Amino acid sequence: MANSNLPNRIIKETQRLLSEPAPGISASPSEVNMRYFNVMILGPTQSPYEGGVFKLELFLSEEYPMIAPKVRFLTKIYHPNIDKLGRICLDILKDKWSPALTIRTVLLSIQALLSAPNPDDPLSENIAKHWKSNEAEALETAKEWTRLYASGA
Predict the structure, then answer these.
(1) Using one digit for the tens of pLDDT, what is the confidence trace for 45-84?
(2) In terms of DSSP H, where are the helices of 1-153?
(3) pLDDT tier at 152 (50, 70, 90 boundaries)?
(4) Hey, which residues does 88 pair with through a beta bridge?
(5) Which residues pair with 72 in a beta bridge?
(6) What pLDDT is attached to residue 5?
(7) Residue 48: is the preceding peptide bond cis (ω within 30°)?
(8) pLDDT for res 1
């Protein structure tokens, strides 16, 4: 592993992610680029994403931890705060970012977002409208997408 030019902080965070994984989350650095993480988040129980395995990518720029990691979903997901490119609308990835936060905090927050979609701060207008006008149907669609795209197949 070539981490000679990696800041200590990233090395420590990576070691902690690997040695004490958060429940339902796995994140491992790419062997080619230690700033690039392959992430898997299990759909939280009691959510329409339950049973799903969602792949994400997380990238730490040169400015990390002064700026937030870049994270996006690679698995298609029906969620008002995640757009079709997998971008995530989450305050701590934008204006609420603080260098005190860690990769682990970010992933736990994304996992929490799966349990509590927020159609009032949407990234996907259509999905948010669906969520607000017919939540039961939107939840069914989310479950269907989870079966179709996140079944770990």
Answers:
(1) 999 999 999 999 999 999 999 999 999 999 999 999 999 9
(2) 8-19, 103-115, 125-133, 135-149
(3) low
(4) 82
(5) 57, 87
(6) 80
(7) no
(8) 47
Q: Which two tokens stand for residue 25?
A: 């989350």
Tokens of 56: 């994400």
Q: Which residue has the tokens 């949407």?
A: 122
Task: List, in sequence order, every residue forming a beta bridge with 55; answer none if it has no partner.
Answer: 40
8 A C-beta contact, residue 67 and residue 61 = yes
Task: Name the DSSP letter for residue 116.
Answer: S
Query: Which CATH number is correct for 8-149, 3.30.70.100, 3.10.110.10, 3.40.50.2300, 3.30.70.1060?
Result: 3.10.110.10
Catalytic residues: 89
From CA 105, how far away is CA 60, in angstroms rounded?
14
State the Rg of the chain over Cα: 16
Return the domain boundaries, the chain.
8-149
Encode pLDDT of 94-146 as tens digits.
999 999 999 999 999 999 999 999 999 899 999 999 999 999 999 999 999 99
SS3 25: strand
